[in-house]
Amino acid sequence: MEPMMEFGRRFRLTLEGASHAPRVGVRLRGVPAGTPVALGPIQEALDRRRPVGRRLASRRHEEDRLVVESGLADGRADGGEIRAHVANTDARPSDYAGLAATPRPGHADYPARVRYGPSADLAGGGIFSGRMTVGLVIAGAIGAQMLRARGIECVAYTRSVGTVDHRPDPRRPLADLRRAAAANEVGCPDPADAARMAEAIEAARRAGDSVGGVVEIRAEGLPVGLGEPFFDSVESVLAHLAFSVPAVKAVEFGAGAAAARMRGSEHNDPYFLVGDELRTRSNHAGGLLGGLTNGMPLLWRVAVKPTSSIAQAQETVDLGTRRPVRLVVPGRHDPCIVPRAVPVLEAVTAIGLTDLALEGGFLP
Questions:
Q1: Among 183, 298, 332, 350, whose CB has the most other CB atoms within 10 angstroms?
Q2: Domain segments of the chain: what residues?
């Protein structure tokens, strides 16, 4: 049975390839003919996802040069399927020989073998790898351009790594947040907190271990009423997309889990008028009520687990002999994938909002 890696109603994407296959990419449908699509921002988004030049990332060196096969002509969508990919030029599938017999702790090796058979491609995680997020970044960069044309902007940044937490000023302009987060390899908009996060990642690397964290995403300029209740609320769509990203373990919107410890008088966001616009004095709801946008900034967070591939020996089972063995995971891996998840989660936010905006008539 071939896996179906598809998402969307109106902004419909299909992921292609695998971690150590010749390439990874995306097929995208639903971009109206004539829509301006610049290649530069797509390449910039791909470059943000790459580990190259980062001290604290994987040593796998991929150029990730964007190749557009169809769907764009003279800087505009032609109304047909947009097909784009990047080549896997530094793949080493031989690093993963034997994984079908000795599943790696924390990876999808064992359930993938059961579901798809012993010949399933598990090199680098195969279709379950973070490498598959290249297609999400390409689609998200296109969606972001469509949203930006309507005054909607999305920005993601590292909120925490391990126990190091950054608490951003909710009034800080998005453009400033983006510039500050891009100024360091951790993706945190505060230099001091970024340095502490880098120390935590380096400590995990020295120990042959890994560390997780949280990515926070803000979107502004959203119209009131975006969303499709009940099952396609903004939260439902974004959570669906977030949990499609490898290593994501939890999501929360606005106050999130902290709301369970609050009273209604604390959590409710009081309304007031700014000219003719209705605003709220706080944003515990994260810009969403009843699954619809309420005109306040959309604010949500995504928890990313520690990288499963670590340099320490771990217990597993040889499925051939049915005996316990100790395994040191081969290959090249990030001690923390949170910084590389930042552009991916920014992309999935744009994908979800674009799909909802097309469905609701907020985009042409």
A1: 350
A2: 6-359
Cβ atoms within 10 Å, residue 357: 23
- Render pLDDT for 81-96 as a digit per residue (tens, 0 to 9): 999 999 988 756 555 5
* SS percent in the chain: helix, strand, coil, step 5: 30, 25, 45
Neighbour count for residue 295 (Cβ, 10 Å) = 17
Backbone angles phi, psi at 260, to 5 degrees: -65, -20
What does each C-alpha distance from 105 to 158, 205, 229, 322 come to in angstroms? 26, 18, 38, 16
The span from the CA of 172 to the CA of 184, in Å, is: 18
Per-residue pLDDT tens for 315-350? 999 988 999 999 887 766 789 999 999 999 999 999
Contact call for residues 181 and 187 (beta carbons, < 8 A)? yes
Name the nearest CA neighbour of 340 among 132, 97, 126, 102: 132
Report yes or no: 355 and 10 within 8 Å, Cβ to Cβ. Answer: yes
Residue 158 near residue 215 (C-beta atoms within 8 A): yes
Strand partners, 87: 23
- Domain 6-359 is in which class? alpha beta
- DSSP letter for 94, please: G
What is the sign of the dihedral through the CA atoms of 338, 57, 112 and 313?
negative
pTM flag (> 0.90): yes
Number of H helices, E strands in the chain: 8, 18
Q: Do the beta carbons of residue 216 and residue 159 sit within 8 Å?
A: yes
Q: How far is CA 122 from the centre of its chain?
A: 21
Contact 31, 142 (CB under 8 A): yes
